[in-house]
Amino acid sequence: MSYETIQVEIHGGAGLVRLHRPEALNALNARLIDELDQALTAFEADERIGCHVLTGSEKAFAAGADIKEMQAKSFADAYLGDFISRWECVARLRKPIIAAVSGYALGGGCELAMMCDFIIASETAQFGQPEIKLGVIPGAGGTQRLTRAIGKAKAMDLCLTGRFMGAEEAERAGLVARVVPEEQLFAEAIKAAQIVAGMSLPAAMTAKEAVDRAYESTLAEGVKFERRAFYALFATEDQKEGMAAFIEKRRPKFKNR
Ligand code: CAA
């Protein structure tokens, strides 16, 4: 399949999607979201893939929703068309997805990165929700996911002033899992994705589901969900193999990966 606004590669068990609209700093237009959905859907169904990676260019992960495409929309266009709902294709994935962020991750770009399971950033990454400067607010989960990730004080600061936050501050605040030099970003993200892809897929998908459940439930409910999911994994061959391999001091050979 050939795409116009993204590039797709497979590296071992890692399925990589690179946002590619260099003329617009990877601004997210309808075509790009459509192609992203198609590519990720294909990876979800591809047995070779155990983990997705979403990345952009050195200069920009994505500079937000495409302002030129949005500017003329009326309330009815926006509300009835509900164009942002298409972006949920990233949040709906069941296989793990890692965002590899370099340069600008602004507005919808920051929101897209936050829909991923974790973010690896280069030292040059800049995160922000500058929609306020356009007379609007974040529309793809920014006020919600950012607040859960970094707390009210910093989320308010970013959403109200529109200032950008560098990689170091983002890591300190808990938005970013790792920060690496720019030239190591790609290798680091692919290596992390291949490690995830080497695990038992049911275990990796269940771990993702359980961590996500922490956002949607009380502690008591979440712990109950986790325990049921933990017990359920004893029904997999991979649990027998993983524990046998530990006891026999060898590497596990997972079937479902
Ligand atoms: N939409 C459309 N085009 C964009 C864009 C965007 N979000 N961001 C950058 N571009 C385009 C610019 O218009 C420019 O195109 P032209 O050369 O044709 O004029 C090109 O990309 C390069 O951009 P700049 O010349 O502005 O580059 P810069 O290095 O001087 O500045 C920047 C970089 C600070 C990221 C600046 O481009 C910028 O502020 N971009 C907009 C960021 C923003 O406001 N994002 C939020 C969008 S709204 C949103 O995302 C809503 C939501 O929550 C869903």
UniProtKB/TrEMBL annotation:
Keywords for this protein: Fatty acid metabolism, Lipid metabolism, Lyase
GO BP, sorted A to Z: fatty acid beta-oxidation
Alphabetized PROSITE patterns for the sequence: ENOYL_COA_HYDRATASE
CDD domains tied to this protein: crotonase-like
Catalytic activity: a 4-saturated-(3S)-3-hydroxyacyl-CoA = a (3E)-enoyl-CoA + H2O; a (3S)-3-hydroxyacyl-CoA = a (2E)-enoyl-CoA + H2O
Key word Lipid metabolism present: yes
GO molecular function: 3-hydroxyacyl-CoA dehydratase activity
EC number: 4.2.1.17
Enzyme category, top tier: lyase
InterPro entries in the cross-refs: ClpP/crotonase-like_dom_sf, Enoyl-CoA_hyd/isom_CS, Enoyl-CoA_hydra/iso, Enoyl-CoA_hydra_C
NCBIfam families recorded: PRK05862.1
UniProt record similarity statement: Belongs to the enoyl-CoA hydratase/isomerase family.
Biological function: Could possibly oxidize fatty acids using specific components.
Protein name, entry field: enoyl-CoA hydratase
